[in-house]
Amino acid sequence: MPAPLRPTASGSSNFVFKHYSGALTQTDGEIRGRRVDDYLFRFEGGKQVLISMDHEDDDLDPLLQVYPAANRQGADPIAGDDDSGGRMNAFLSFTPEESGDYIVRATGSTSDRSIGSYRLRVGQQP
């Protein structure tokens, strides 16, 4: 068995995350059969963004999508994730090409799993 490595870090970064509590309800807007909460963020181009969405009850299977603010009705997000956060939670990493306003869409992965409470965390590389 090989000996474990003792890694030497080549650098570090300090992400500061902001936390948001939310809930998708029957009164939220609906796009393509799913309830959605759209959040507006300003991201700097060329700096990595990390976003997670964790469900707080079993009625929601989180899905994250990111759109340019000017085209949030578009069919294809520039980034998205369904289950990379473990236990049906969503986690994504993306680096915007340009600085500007972006929509982070919190929704459910299917129309029958799109209602419930969640916690959203958003951070960008300093």
Q: Can you tag this structure with a few keywords?
A:
single chain, 126 residues, mainly beta, Jelly Rolls, five-stranded antiparallel β-sheet, four-stranded antiparallel β-sheet, 9 strands, 0% helix, Peptidase C-terminal archaeal/bacterial domain-containing protein
3D architecture notes:
This protein is mostly beta strands. It is 0% helix and 48% strand. The chain has one domain (16-124): Jelly Rolls (Sandwich), CATH 2.60.120. The chain has no helices and 9 strands. The strands form 2 sheets. Strands 2-3-8-5-6 form a 5-stranded antiparallel β-sheet, with no helix packed on it. It has a 4-stranded antiparallel β-sheet with strand order 1-9-4-7, with no helix packed on it. It is globular and about 55 Å long. It starts with 15 loop residues before the first strand and ends with a strand. The mean pLDDT is 89. This is Peptidase C-terminal archaeal/bacterial domain-containing protein. It comes from Sphingomonas alpina.
End-to-end span in angstroms? 40 Å
* Biggest sheet architecture: 5 strands, antiparallel
Unreliably modeled segments: none
Number of strands: 9
Beta-strand percent range:
over 45%
Order of helices and strands: EEEEEEEEE
- Count of distinct structural domains: 1
Tell me, what is the CATH class?
A: Mainly Beta
The portion of residues assigned to helices is under 10%
Radius of gyration: 16 Å
**Architecture per CATH nomenclature, i.e. the level-2 architecture:** Sandwich
Q: What average pLDDT do the residues reach? A: 89
CATH topology: Jelly Rolls
Total helical elements: 0
What's the overall geometry? Answer: globular
Query: Strands across the major sheet, in which order?
Result: 2-3-8-5-6
Q: Output the structural class.
A: mainly beta
